[in-house]
Design a protein that fits this description.
- There is one protein chain.
- This protein is an alpha/beta fold.
- The protein contains 4 helices and 7 strands.
- The strands form 2 sheets. A 4-stranded mixed beta sheet has the order 1-2-4-3, covered by helices on one side.
- α1 crosses α2.
- It is elongated and about 60 Å long.
- It binds zinc ion.
- The site of zinc ion has 3 residues, from loops.
Length: about 170
């Protein structure tokens, strides 16, 4: 009998909070959140046997959390800015927090936004929605950012804070 022993993190970050991390066999997948703990559930036949499978499960958690948050904030910002968005996709992006295609009126968001506090995801959503008005990062773009989110300069530094050095990257 060969056992697969995989390294399971003792905690992961969700919306800026460090939470204890546990795995649990259940009749369905999904996850359970409490004040202190995230429990990822898996069906017995889908027990993760590699770090890559575990990361895939955590990515699903972040994807779902980002989806729920974007569902609240996208309608807010598109209304405030008076812009029209045709499609929002949330996915794993290697080197971007988000991107916007003003021509197609679509934005993409990185599912790892769910690691950091909500205000960082909100900043990225605002940033990408503003590209529907101003595609470049010139003075006009920055003055719009400052108008709608006066503290954006400190918010956009959040992922570089020392606090997040031990993030379990997925
Ligand atoms: Zn940009």
């Amino acid at each position: 009998m060969v056992y697969n022993i995989i390294m399971i993190p003792s905690h992961i970050y969700l919306w800026g909070n460090k939470k204890n991390f546990t795995l649990s066999s259940a009749s369905q997948g999904g996850y359970v959140l409490s004040e202190t703990t995230i429990t990822l559930c898996y069906r017995e036949q889908h027990r993760p046997t590699s770090v890559e499978q575990l990361k895939r499960m955590i990515r699903r958690l972040y994807l779902q959390e980002c989806y729920l948050y974007a569902q609240k904030r996208i309608p807010y910002w598109t209304t405030v800015l008076g812009v029209e968005l045709k499609k929002v996709s949330i996915r794993r992006l290697k080197s971007l927090w988000g991107s916007c295609s003003p021509h197609n009126k679509t934005i993409r968001l990185n599912l790892c936004l769910a690691i950091y506090p909500h205000q960082f995801a909100d900043y990225v959503i605002l940033h990408e929605c503003l590209h529907l008005i101003e595609p470049n990062h010139g003075p006009m773009f920055k003055s719009l950012l400052s108008k709608y989110m006066p503290h954006w300069k400190s918010i956009h530094q959040i992922p570089r804070q020392k606090l997040y050095q031990e993030v379990f990257y997925v």
